[in-house]
């Protein structure tokens, strides 16, 4: 049951009811990145040097491809939510805020697609 | 600081995905991707991104602990803060030492 009056509903006052989803999503991806991020850094530290040969060999390992795609998706979601909070908190002009929030969604969708596509393409060797 | 490193890491993620895409170009050794790790500016950026990652990682765990309802004593708040700073410096040095 909503305690909002009909007028405040029309004007759009009150909670948007999406806060919990945002909050949980941010925490779950945080834990995922804490694990996957450490794996990625440890894995790159063990690579020796970042020569073409070493890097390409790394991308040919199925487990690396799989975990990197997971990492990219988690980071894209986490970064999307984090930047969204910052725009919501610090940008006060309604028009600018809306434009930035939409741009944020599009940018992170592009980055996720770019990252997943590139990782997979490197694995199969396009 | 958590938000500042977060924004900076978002930019790092953007550069990382573009770098991945650049790897698909077969002329990798000649392009930006190869000289990526040797240039001084990129080296400085990698140092900054490493520190930001470890800081955001440690402070993020601190936030998760707070979310779970622990660590609100004044003493724990201070020791947590010191832990985050010491941890992020040590891990950054360790990581940079192993990649450079």
In DSSP terms (H or I, runs of 4 or more residues), the helix count of chain B works out at 4
Strand content of chain B: under 5%
Mean pLDDT of chain A, to the nearest integer, reads 89
The Cα radius of gyration of chain B reads 17 Å
Mean pLDDT of chain B: 85
- Principal-axis shape of chain B: elongated
* CATH fold-level assignment of chain A: 3 helical TM bundles of succinate and fumarate reductases
- Sum up the overall morphology of chain A in one term: elongated
The tally of strands of chain A reads 0
Task: Report the oligomer.
Answer: heterodimer
CATH superfamily of chain B: Fumarate reductase/succinate dehydrogenase, transmembrane subunit
C-alpha-based Rg of chain A, rounded: 20 Å
The end-to-end span of chain A amounts to 55 Å
Distance between the termini of chain B: 27 Å
Category by helix and strand content of chain A? mainly alpha
- CATH homologous superfamily of chain A? Fumarate reductase/succinate dehydrogenase, transmembrane subunit
**Share in helix of chain B:** over 70%
Give the uncertain stretches of chain A in residue-range form. none
Describe the structure.
The complex is a heterodimer of chains A (126) and B (100). With 126 residues, chain A is mainly α. Helix content of chain A is 80%, strand content 0%. Chain A has five helices and no strands. The longest helix of chain A is centred in the C-terminal third of the chain and has 31 residues, at 94-124. The radius of gyration of chain A is 20 Å and the shape is elongated. Chain A starts with 5 loop residues before the first helix and ends with a helix. The mean pLDDT of chain B is 85. Chain B has 100 residues and is an all-alpha fold. Chain B has one domain: Fumarate reductase/succinate dehydrogenase, transmembrane subunit (3 helical TM bundles of succinate and fumarate reductases). The A-B interface holds A 27, 30-31, 34, 37-38, 41, 44-46, 50, 52, 55-56, 59, 72, 75-76, 79, 82-83, 86, 107, 111, 114-115, 117-119, 121-122, 126 and B 3, 6-7, 9-10, 13-14, 16-18, 20-21, 23-24, 28-29, 34, 36-37, 50, 53, 57, 60-61, 64, 67, 95, 98-99.
């Amino acid at each position: 049951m909503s305690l909002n009056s009909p007028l405040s509903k029309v004007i759009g006052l009150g909670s948007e009811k999406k806060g919990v989803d945002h909050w949980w999503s941010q925490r779950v991806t945080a834990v995922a990145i804490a694990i996957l991020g450490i794996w990625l850094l440890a894995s790159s530290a063990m690579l020796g040097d970042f020569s073409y040969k070493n890097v390409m060999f790394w991308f040919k390992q199925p487990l690396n491809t799989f975990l990197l795609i997971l990492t990219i998706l988690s980071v894209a979601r986490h970064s999307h939510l984090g930047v969204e909070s910052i725009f919501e908190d610090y940008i006060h002009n309604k028009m600018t805020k809306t434009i930035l929030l939409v741009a944020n969604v599009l940018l992170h969708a592009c980055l996720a697609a770019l990252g997943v596509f590139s990782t997979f393409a490197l694995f199969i060797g396009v | 600081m958590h938000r500042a490193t977060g924004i900076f890491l978002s930019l790092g993620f953007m550069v990382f995905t573009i770098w991945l895409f650049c790897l698909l170009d077969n002329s990798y050794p000649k392009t930006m991707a190869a000289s990526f790790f040797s240039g001084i500016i990129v080296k400085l950026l990698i140092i900054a991104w490493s520190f930001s990652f470890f800081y955001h990682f440690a402070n993020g765990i601190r936030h998760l602990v707070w979310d779970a309802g622990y660590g609100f004593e004044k003493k724990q708040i201070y020791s947590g803060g010191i832990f985050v700073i010491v941890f992020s410096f040590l891990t950054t040095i360790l990581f940079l030492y192993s990649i450079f």
